[in-house]
Write a structure and sequence with these properties.
Elements lengths: L35 H31 L1 H30 L5 H40 L12 H86 L1 H23 L8 H18 L4 E7 L12 H14 L6 E10 L2 E8 L12 H14 L4 E6 L5 E8 L9
Parallel strand pairs: 1-2
Antiparallel strand pairs: 2-3, 3-5, 4-5
Amino acid sequence: MTTHAGYPLQQVLPAEVLVGGNAVWSRYRQYPVFSARWLAGRSLLFCGLIGVATAFTGAGVGLAGQGAVIGAKSGLTQFVAFSLMAMLGPALATIVRHRRWPESRERKAVVLAVLAGVVLSYAIDKVASGYLLALVNPHLAALGMVPSKPPEVGLVVKAMGLALNIAALILIYGLFGGGLALRAYFSERRRWDRHRHADAVERLQGRVREADLRLGVLQAQVEPHFLFNTLASVRALVRQDPGQAEATLDALVDFLRATIPKLRDGQGLHSTLGQQLDICASYLALMQVRMGGRLSFAMSVDPALRAQPFPPALLITLVENAIKHGIEPRPGPGRIEVSAMQEGSRLRIRVVDDGAGLQPGIGGGMGLANVREQLAQRFGAQARLSLRPGEARGVVAEIELPSAPATEDGA
């Protein structure tokens, strides 16, 4: 059985929540306060100690001339009374805790249960004390040992004595009958909440590390793809058109200058929109040379948005996809426009081409699948990728994600 807060009452507490050593007499504290196993362990410990103490007092009464029967009755009465006084409050609180009520209701009910145990302990003490006096006094009187009456005192002194007596009884009954356990109950709650928070933070950090590693793999899958294609085209141009091959290599060098420092600085999984736009611009310039000048492109973005955090490898994937599936399959000139805008708390980045348009199978490739997975890993349901036909022809690819407050570009 578990509580609403989520930790089981029948299992040992986590090490971060546990208080106390591993001694035999304190092992019951390894379980949640006011749980069945905690109550059983505490009852065994307290009743054992009470049994030893009352056995000595009973023997003392018998040896004082009261007789073995009177001593046994006295010891047994004290054992039962003290055991009930020690266990009633915790037992009632244990029943409450296993009701699995909401936390606020449970806390109030546990306090009331312990207070009820204190009241019952007082009643038990009065009954047991009366019985013991009735049991022992006749024998004391026979031996001429009847206690003398206390001297008369004033009302003020009597009232002060009564108040001190009541305060002492409440303190004794409260501590002995579950007051310390009540304090442990609330401190355990606080320790459990801290443990649960720390555990949640650790799990979140673990998911972030796992996501970063996965995103690193995804990024590694995407970035070399166009590089291999470019090198293959340079190889083909070396003999056919050396000048074009040289221009392509120059553009490739510019592109690598824009990307390699970013990969070397240890921040390859974190970037800004401005950095990704620069990479796309150098890539488009490279493709413009590769395609013999039939490609044109434009970048439209508010400079204030360049400092926005933006995941790596997403935008270049959309641009490469627009060339591969839009511009290259269609003869003649082609154009790609990249724009970014902020609408309220949302950032929209569009890659628009006037190429061949949406064809069967487009949208299901590895590149776009990686884009969707990165968005899901980083933003969950708050980000999305959409593809739709352009107004005249071609495709509009749009990424929408939460934006940070716009700042000046610090890249």
